[in-house]
Design a protein that fits this description.
The protein is mainly α. It has one domain (about 1-105). The chain has helices at about 1-30, 35-50, 65-80, 85-100, 105-130. The longest helix has 27 residues, at about 1-30. It is globular and about 60 Å long.
Length: about 130
């Protein structure tokens, strides 16, 4: 019986993280959010929705470190960068959209793809420069 309670607690926490991540996505588009917060929020949301992890999951223990510690920590820090009034409005919107379950993540997918294309381009340019030397 104790295991069921722990499972429900983790499930509730996962739902909360999902809501907070979507809140950050909505806040990213809000013009009232400072530019530095948008940069950090963009990185966190992109990483949260990205299928590529900083530490691959197949590495024992460390593979889940980013999912269990780094991502929630990043979300917490990002939420603190957003003005309280804006955050409250974004949370309300996120909950409404997630409860209706009618959202489309095309914009999020575009942001993630763009971030990864920029990273890959940077790496290719760096490798080409090293090879030419």
């Amino acid at each position: 019986m104790k295991e069921a309670g722990i499972f429900l607690k983790w499930k509730k926490r996962a739902e909360q993280l999902k809501t907070e991540t979507y809140t950050l996505f909505i806040a990213f588009k809000d013009p009232r959010v400072p530019w530095y917060a948008k940069v950090f929020v963009g990185c966190i949301v992109g990483y949260a929705f990205s299928p590529i992890d900083l530490i691959p999951d197949f590495i024992p223990v460390l593979g889940y470190l980013d999912d269990l510690i780094l991502l929630p920590l990043g979300i917490t820090l990002a939420l603190r960068m957003i003005p309280a009034k804006v955050l409250k409005e974004c949370r309300t919107k996120a909950k409404e959209i997630l409860n209706k379950n009618i959202h489309k993540n095309w914009t999020a997918a575009l942001v993630i793809i763009t971030i990864w294309l920029l990273i890959i381009t940077f790496l290719i340019v760096a490798v080409v420069r090293i090879i030419k030397k």
